[in-house]
Amino acid sequence: MKKDRIYALLFSRVYPLYIKKAEAKGRTKEEVDTVIFWLTGYDKKTLQQQINNKNDFETFFAEAPQLNPNVSKITGVICGYRVEEIEDPVIQKIRYLDKLIDELAKGKAMEKILRK
């Protein structure tokens, strides 16, 4: 995916896809939100503001209250790339979120997803 194209993706358009993916595997919207809150530091209100503002992913992560300090524990392959080796910080954060949603959809325990 071209850098400019991924940067232009609106979080508000991808968020329902995260929920759909999780729900298709028996998980819930609340679990998706928990993963997002853990990664970004957003809460229910500030996440909804990001959705309402139709922010792109670059803005979504730039305005995140605090990236979780355990983010470096997210490892593995997503979309053919090792997340820990992605050099572009915005794309890496997007892939971190993708990886966490994948783990959720695959039935991994929330405790493991949140790197506890």
From TrEMBL:
Protein name (database record): DUF2200 domain-containing protein
Domain of life (superkingdom): Bacteria
Organism: Segetibacter aerophilus
